[in-house]
């Protein structure tokens, strides 16, 4: 006879309880039918398997994972628009257009979700029918009635109903037959069956056939109302997500994440954020198949599991930064996730069953939307977050960033005040950015150092003024100087304005000529469009040399080198054309160029100056760099005129239609 060892017996008992627990868990979880089938099948497989095999643990973890997902859990949206507006307003200074767009977006979604919830009540007893209709109408639903299945079919042919509430036993056509008919309709209404105690088994049958719920007779009105409310809520949050995905675009630190967070707060939803920067592999988003050792679900499903609800606000950060070497097609993976048509049946490779992501409110963020593939951009509604002016930065620092950092550094009980001068210095000399990230970091550094001073010196006096000199002693010497704009005149060196994903940027263009064989050398991480601009500028000057009193043969026996420093930042776009042309003319005429005049504009071969984009961001960059004069294409005058006065403050703006105007501004007398 074979006796099992004590150890083996214990192990077997443990296995049995594991599987028992899982079985109970599966019953309790009320998984959607296809998922339930998969879970049951996996459980059967485990029952036949040796518990010590690695496959057993994999299977166990898999079922555990399925059970832990929020298949049904979601939070109810707070659709109070006034409250949403207040939250957005109180968390963010300015951003008026952004706030308006978001309020409109929420309003449309709210309207479309609560507007037309229509219920069809089907019962052959008139009293029951009228009573049910009365109760539901009182709760605000629109109600239609029918006295039997056949009548109901006629109503459904003419009206769209979101919910059919039907008695099971009826002459002519019963509830099950009606259910079978309604199941084929598009869009499909939800069905709730009302049944006497005697027919509970057929009600269970009805559930399997796709009914949403059944209610026993006599009807408990509270239960009825709760059931209808539940189904209505489900529709609300599904339709809430059927509008285009929002994409927040703008330089870093302009408030994209924090506005996303406020939207979640306003709707009372959970907030999740993942960054897609440098993402290499589809599997990171969509998981690995379970056949891989150490397979895991992707980040989308893991985050859904972590928050425990199926309708969070989900921010996909930096979708324009998906790694260059991404394996697979990023646009199609993102569409599967973002597009409500497709994401209803999102399949994570690990789960291998569809999970409905249509309840999730996705918000994407990007620094430069131009980089996004067209099909993806088509499905998104882009909201632009502009760069901040110095005045806005001061306001935000004073009212939001400093109070927050004080709280985070336990300094609220002290009366610390930043003087206007210190704030200006902080913004002008310690940061050089379109957004607020570094400013917030510098404020945090000041707070940290102040905390240390308080503790070290056992300072009792709670009052402290942070002025310019204290600031300098805390942060060290200034980090940024206006070196470009304050440099004197130079031959062959001009100042330009370009737009990058960090906002507007100031560049200098250096041109040199040397003996050689008619080569144009271009350096400084220049993109292809910028390279073409340089070639165009050179050809323009060669063909118009005499207009500028330049020897037409200047290129024979020579090489020309154009360099745009700060090679770490890739530069591209047509807007440096005029800056390059003026640098070349300055070089070839030996006339020194003013560095405090910044240019932007596209130059054509015939010398026309074409308009460029990002005027606001470029003017702000010019201000930050201490530039005095900005020359813009004439066609951009409308853009410049519509800007708030803060943006052009301290700048002289000149509009140019011809190269001559550029030359007067840069090479003329100042
Ligand atoms: P992004 O996501 O665009 O990079 P963040 O949302 O992280 O930017 O913003 C950086 C910081 O600046 C955050 O602390 C944010 O709260 C703050 N901030 C940005 N814009 C505003 C604003 N308009 N009002 C108040 N605080 C702001």
Outline:
This protein is α/β, with parallel strands linked by helices. The protein is built from 27 helices and 25 strands.
Q: How would you describe the overall organization of this protein?
A:
- A seven-stranded mixed beta sheet has the order 18-19-17-16-21-24-25.
- It contains 27 helices and 25 strands.
- With about 675 residues, the chain is α/β, with parallel strands linked by helices.
- Strand 4, helix 9 (about 200-210) and strand 5 (about 215) form a beta-alpha-beta unit.
- It is elongated and about 100 Å long.
- It folds into five domains: about 5-70, no CATH class; about 120-240, Rossmann fold; about 245-385, P-loop containing nucleotide triphosphate hydrolases (Rossmann fold); about 390-475, Helicase, Ruva Protein, domain 3 (Orthogonal Bundle), CATH 1.10.8.60; about 485-665, Ribosomal Protein S5, domain 2, CATH 3.30.230.
- The N and C termini lie far apart (about 110 Å).
- The model has no long low-confidence stretch (mean pLDDT about 85).
- Adenosine-5'-diphosphate binds near residues 92, 252, 254, 258 and 396.
């Amino acid at each position: 006879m074979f006796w099992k060892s004590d150890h083996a017996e214990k192990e077997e008992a443990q296995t049995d309880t594991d599987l028992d627990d899982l079985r109970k868990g599966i019953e309790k979880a009320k998984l959607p039918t296809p998922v339930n089938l998969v879970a049951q099948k996996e459980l059967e497989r485990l029952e036949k398997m040796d518990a010590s095999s690695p496959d057993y643990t994999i299977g166990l973890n898999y079922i555990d994972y399925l059970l832990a997902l929020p298949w049904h859990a979601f939070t109810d949206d707070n659709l109070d628009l006034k409250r949403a507006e207040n939250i957005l307003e109180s968390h963010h200074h300015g951003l008026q257009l952004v706030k308006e767009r978001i309020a409109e977006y929420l309003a449309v979604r709210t309207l479309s979700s609560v507007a037309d919830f229509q219920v069809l009540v089907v019962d052959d007893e008139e009293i029951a029918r009228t009573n049910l209709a009365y109760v539901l109408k009182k709760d605000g639903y629109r109600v239609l009635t029918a006295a039997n299945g056949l009548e109901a079919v006629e109503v459904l042919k003419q009206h769209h109903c979101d919910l059919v509430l039907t008695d099971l036993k009826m002459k002519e056509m019963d509830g099950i037959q009606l259910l079978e008919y309604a199941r084929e309709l598009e869009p499909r209404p939800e069905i709730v069956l009302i049944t006497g105690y005697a027919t509970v088994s057929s009600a269970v049958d009805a559930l399997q056939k796709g009914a949403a719920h059944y209610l026993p007779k006599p009807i408990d009105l509270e239960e009825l109302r709760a059931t209808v409310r539940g189904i209505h809520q489900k529709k609300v949050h599904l339709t809430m997500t059927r509008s285009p995905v929002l994409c927040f675009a703008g330089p870093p630190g302009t408030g994209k994440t924090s506005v996303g967070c406020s939207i979640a707060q306003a709707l009372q939803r959970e907030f999740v954020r993942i960054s897609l920067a440098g993402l290499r592999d589809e599997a990171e988003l969509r998981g690995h198949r379970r056949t891989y050792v150490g397979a895991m679900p992707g980040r989308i499903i893991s985050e859904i599991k972590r928050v425990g609800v199926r309708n969070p606000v989900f921010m996909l950060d930096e979708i324009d930064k998906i790694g260059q070497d991404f394996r697979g097609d990023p646009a199609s993976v993102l569409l599967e996730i973002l597009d409500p048509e497709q994401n209803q049946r999102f399949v994570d490779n690990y789960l291998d069953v569809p999970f409905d992501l249509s309840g999730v409110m996705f918000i994407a963020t990007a620094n430069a939307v131009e980089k996004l593939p067209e099909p993806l951009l088509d499905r998104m509604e882009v909201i632009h977050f502009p760069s901040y002016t110095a005045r806005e930065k001061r306001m935000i620092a004073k009212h939001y960033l400093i109070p927050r950092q004080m709280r985070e550094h336990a300094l609220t009980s002290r009366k610390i005040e930043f003087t206007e001068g210190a704030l200006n210095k902080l913004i002008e000399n310690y940061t050089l950015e379109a957004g607020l990230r570094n400013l917030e970091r510098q404020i945090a550094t000041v707070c940290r150092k102040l905390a240390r001073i308080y503790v070290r010196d056992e300072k009792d006096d709670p009052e402290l003024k942070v002025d310019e000199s204290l600031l300098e002693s805390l942060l060290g010497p200034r980090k940024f100087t206006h070196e470009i704009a304050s440099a004197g005149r130079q031959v062959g060196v001009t100042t330009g304005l370009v737009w990058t994903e960090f906002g507007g940027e100031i560049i200098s263009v250096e041109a040199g000529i040397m003996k050689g064989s008619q080569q144009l050398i271009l350096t400084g991480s220049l993109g292809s469009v910028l390279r073409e601009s340089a070639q165009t500028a050179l050809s323009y000057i060669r063909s118009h040399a005499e207009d500028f009193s330049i020897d037409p043969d200047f290129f024979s026996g020579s090489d020309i080198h154009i360099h745009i420093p700060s090679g770490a930042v890739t530069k591209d776009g047509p807007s440096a054309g005029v800056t390059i042309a003026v640098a070349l003319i300055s070089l070839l005429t030996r006339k020194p160029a003013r560095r405090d005049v910044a240019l932007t504009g596209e130059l054509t071969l015939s010398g026309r100056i074409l308009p460029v984009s990002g005027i606001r961001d470029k003017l702000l960059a010019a201000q930050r760099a201490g530039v005095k004069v900005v020359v813009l294409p004439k066609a951009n005058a409308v853009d410049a005129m519509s800007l708030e006065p803060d943006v052009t403050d301290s700048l002289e703006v000149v509009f140019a239609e011809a190269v001559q105007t550029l030359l007067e501004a840069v090479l003329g007398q100042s």
